[in-house]
Write a structure and sequence with these properties.
heterodimer; A: 320 residues; mainly alpha; flat; B: 437 residues; alpha/beta; 2 domains; 6-stranded mixed β-sheet; 19 helices; globular
Chain lengths: 320, 437
């Protein structure tokens, strides 16, 4: 995001004529230009460093301390203690890691193919295509917190829609969608998938629009069926979209927070790393050091997943 | 994430306008810092005719009740109270940074460990001078609750309410139940209710704190007040067989709790008591808020959680107490003293209770003639108690109760068999939390 203005500065705006471009190139940079450049590159850099790097590094540093958030002189260095406690003593940590992984697996296995399927259908210019598009995309527009709120009404054990319909709100027949640790993660994943499907659909729809129609024509002329054409011609051309989809899904599953927090505050069965971070840092007499340690784990996991993938992708693109 | 179809053609800004934009953005960012810093500020400096109060009374009824009290104070003293109200939970979550920034002169807070914590951190000012005037208005148990660990006063109590077992009189009459006085009678009553097709004990633990109330009751009835306090303060061990016994008792009662409690809020659980589907409900007296029907409210009654160990009897009542503290360097110290002296009078409490009838006065001298029968009973129960506790999350470190005890108790409720492993884990985590600062 912060790189936007500097890119705009490097490439002359499309409106400028060829002549002016040549004159600026011939002259050395004037003083004013240099100031302009310094401000344009400097302001975003300062903001980026202050808001991203300094805070991230401060968080990493705090992970090796204990601090209750009251006055800077109460920060004490404890080395690896936070991590030792986290890995050995925190009964919520490993379940949280597991749930983040499950979250990713479910999102990539169910809503993503479903979104692709919907996109392919909508791409056929069927009637009312816009209406369907809007309907499937609407959940993406709603904030996660609202989605969590709406779904916890649906899942409410006493008055919720589901239990009322199937008659599971009588003593002895209860299905506790929100509280039962064997059920609640799946219940909340239904809500997450409901939203993610629409998101994936839009991404794939955009990708499909850019597929050269002549490719399909050629495939049709060669006698390829619909499925064959999709599998061998259309899908391979969607590779850039797939990269985006994968990265977006990984990010979604690592930052999953709001939905669950509203749903049941990350009670047993739905613990997530992000909720553990918030639970430890926000609030009175907070455990800033310990919470930062969890945040660092989350950061390392994100980097470990994203960096190799991006390196591989860029390498492939350079070769191509 | 850039869709590959051509984007809308927006006329691109010239370099100069971009630059101007960047300049003003930088200006904005520069100006933003003092603006942000001023956010926590409480307005103008020392005005001898005004005192600022940071309030967590965001609900309509208490907000109005406090407004009436401050208006009366103004008429009496000529000092205006400027109230800065924040959402109840937000206030609590931000209390750390609030007190370190530029807090109001006086702020709403809770008695007990949660008050002592901020006193020990020097984020609150001692008010022994106020107590020299108001001390006679309060019973000894309240005095104990208002002192920091150093023995000086930091807190002026205003209102309190008890935790007890609530029931509907009509249900008890209809089935011929009697109020249980001992643990065995309680278990027997639960069995009878189950046979009669009632949910014996209404329960909802979605918000994770109600379970702490049940633990408190069983613990101080079984092990006594002193042990409970030492356990909450991190001094007694959670692996002590006494704690194990608490969970054994609880497990005996658990089959009579309402099903599906992990997904139910206390409000919904209270509704099942109001609808006569459940026989009893252990909660604070705020349960009455859910009894919107007048006849149902008049039918509501309560009894103290029954005796378990005769050595302790019913000597302890869980009575969370709300009141006021003074921030570390109030701008108008003289005005603060006058305000607190007023708030510590029975008259101020009576005025408050005229609007908010869900609580009772903390002072032993307040007039009780306007009380509802429920309030009268609550008042008698609290003033007759030898010891008052404040609720687990007010009697212990909040970081411990929120990150360890809330999930821990929920784990027990799901799997009552795994107590030993759970208690060992709680003890390990407790040690590290209580060791840190």
């Amino acid at each position: 995001m912060t790189s936007e203005p500097s890119r705009a500065a490097a490439a002359p705006p499309p409106g400028t004529t060829r002549a002016t471009r040549e004159t600026t190139r011939r002259q050395l940079l004037t003083r004013r230009d240099r100031i302009t450049l310094a401000v344009m590159a400097g302001v975003p850099t300062v903001l980026h460093v202050a808001l991203v790097w300094v805070t991230a590094l401060a968080s990493v540093a705090l992970a090796f301390t204990t601090w209750d958030g009251i006055g800077f002189d109460s920060i004490r260095w404890v080395g690896l203690d936070n991590f030792r406690q986290l890995f050995a003593d925190n009964p919520q940590f490993w379940p949280a890691v597991e749930h983040n992984v499950v979250w990713f697996a479910v999102l990539i296995l169910i809503p993503t193919p479903l979104g692709l399927f919907l996109a392919v259908q909508l791409d056929k210019r069927i009637r009312f295509s816009r209406v369907y598009q809007t309907a499937f995309f609407l959940p993406v527009v709603i904030s996660m917190a609202c989605i969590g709120f709406v779904w916890q009404l649906v899942y409410n054990p006493d008055t919720g829609l589901i239990n009322s319909i199937i008659g599971a709100n009588r003593p002895g027949h209860y299905i506790d969608w929100i509280g039962d640790p064997h059920l609640n993660l799946w219940a909340v994943l239904v809500a997450a998938s409901w939203r993610h499907t629409g998101y994936m659909m839009i991404l794939y729809l955009a990708g499909l629009k850019s597929v050269d129609p002549s490719l399909r024509e050629a495939a049709a002329l060669d006698g390829a069926g619909e499925w064959q054409a999709f599998r061998n011609v259309v899908f391979p051309t969607l590779r850039p979209t797939n990269t985006v989809v994968l990265v977006v899904t990984i990010i979604e599953s690592l930052r999953a927070f709001d939905l669950v927090f509203v749903f049941n505050k990350g009670a047993q069965g739905t613990e997530l790393l992000s909720i553990l971070v918030t639970g430890n840092i926000i609030g009175e007499s907070s455990r800033v050091g310990y919470g930062s340690a969890i945040a660092v784990v989350l950061l390392v996991v994100s980097l470990a997943v994203i960096i190799p993938y991006l390196i591989a992708t860029f390498r492939k693109e350079r070769r191509a | 994430m850039r869709p590959s179809h051509p984007g809308p053609s927006v006329p691109s800004p010239s370099r100069r306008s971009l630059l101007r934009g960047a300049g003003s953005a930088a200006l904005l960012a520069g100006a933003g810092t003092p603006l942000l810093a001023a956010c926590g500020g409480s307005g103008s400096a020392a005005d001898p005719k005004a005192v600022t109060v940071g309030s967590n009374a965001s609900d309509a009824v208490p907000k109005k009740a406090f407004a009436n009290v401050y208006a009366a104070f103004r008429r009496q003293s000529g000092i205006t109270v400027r109230v800065n109200t924040k959402d109840h939970n937000t206030f609590q979550e931000q209390i750390n940074s609030y007190l370190q920034g530029t807090p109001d002169d006086v702020f709403n807070w809770f008695a007990g460990y949660r008050m002592q914590f901020f006193a020990a951190k020097k984020l609150a000012a001692p008010i022994d001078d106020v107590w020299a005037r108001i001390g006679d208005n309060f019973p000894d148990a309240m005095k104990k609750l208002s002192k920091g660990e150093d023995g000086t006063y930091y807190f002026v109590p205003m209102t309190t309410y008890p935790w007890a077992v609530f029931y509907r009189r009509s249900v008890f009459t209809r089935y011929g139940y009697e109020v249980p006085a001992t643990w065995d009678q309680l278990v027997a009553l639960c069995k009878r209710m189950k046979k009669d097709g009632l949910v014996p004990i209404a329960f909802g633990d979605k918000d994770a704190w109600p379970a702490m109330g049940t633990f408190d009751q069983i613990d101080f009835r079984l092990n006594g007040y002193d042990f409970h306090v030492r356990l909450m303060a991190g001094k007694a061990s959670w692996t002590d067989p006494k704690v194990r016994a608490v969970f054994d008792h609880w497990a005996e009662l658990l089959p009579y709790h309402q099903d599906g409690f992990m997904g139910r809020t206390w409000q919904d659980a209270a509704q099942s008591l109001a609808a006569r589907k459940a026989g009893m409900y252990l909660l604070g007296s705020f349960v009455a808020q859910q009894f919107t029907d007048r006849s149902a409210l008049e039918d509501l009654d309560f009894f103290p959680f029954p005796e378990i160990d005769p050595a302790h009897g019913l000597d302890t009542v869980e009575a969370p107490t709300d009141g006021f503290m003074v921030s570390r360097s109030p701008k108008n110290r003289a005005g603060v003293v006058r305000l607190l002296e007023y708030l510590g009078t029975p008259a101020a409490e009576e005025l408050y209770l005229r609007t908010d009838s869900s609580v009772v006065a903390a002072s032993g001298k307040a007039d009780t003639s306007a009380y509802s029968p429920l309030q009268k009973k609550a008042f008698a129960m609290i003033s007759g108690a030898r010891n008052l506790t404040q609720f687990m999350d007010r009697d212990s470190r909040p970081d411990f109760t929120s990150t360890v005890m809330q999930p821990g108790l929920q784990k027990f409720l799901q799997n009552p068999q795994g107590v030993d492993g759970l208690l060992a884990s709680i003890e390990r985590q407790k040690k590290t939390i209580f060791a840190s600062s």
